[in-house]
Amino acid sequence: MPIKIKGPKKLTPDQLKKIKKQTKACHHNRVGYPALQKLALGMFKRSKEDADNIRNLSEILHSQKLIIDENKKGISILVDKYEDRIGELEKQIEELTKQRNESTRAYNGLAQMGKFAEDMGIDLQSAKDDLPETEKNKYDFKQTDTVMESGKVKHQMFLKPKQRPEGYFRFGKFIPGKKPKKSNGENK
Fold it and tell me: Which phi and psi (to 5°) does residue 171 adopt?
């Protein structure tokens, strides 16, 4: 069903007179000067209010832009710090991974050495007091593990007799150097 568009309402002569009186229109059916002046004053007042609103809104926008710029600077500083920290942590992870691999290789070498010793008939339980880690051992122990190009791991273990430093103990403290000789009167 087609929609009919209605045209403008036709005014009756009484309604037309009423509108002419309100707008102070002249006999040519044009708006009069007093009505135009009233309209111009209303528009001027409205434009002042709009200008004040625009000024307030522009100040708000400017302050928000400054805040956004400060936040961007702060965010970029934080991002730089976090990127630096991530780099440090990645280096630390790399180093710890290397240490873990070296420790695993060393453990594997010691475990193989223990198996070989047991196969040869050596009792490891009785030898635990003479381990290189204990303080009372007589040897310096050094172990190196090298990964060859073929992918195999070469284990080397070195034992050297410890050299005691020259010195003596007095009241539980180690004093380096030779022990002083006592004079004749102190031996009593």
Answer: 55, 40
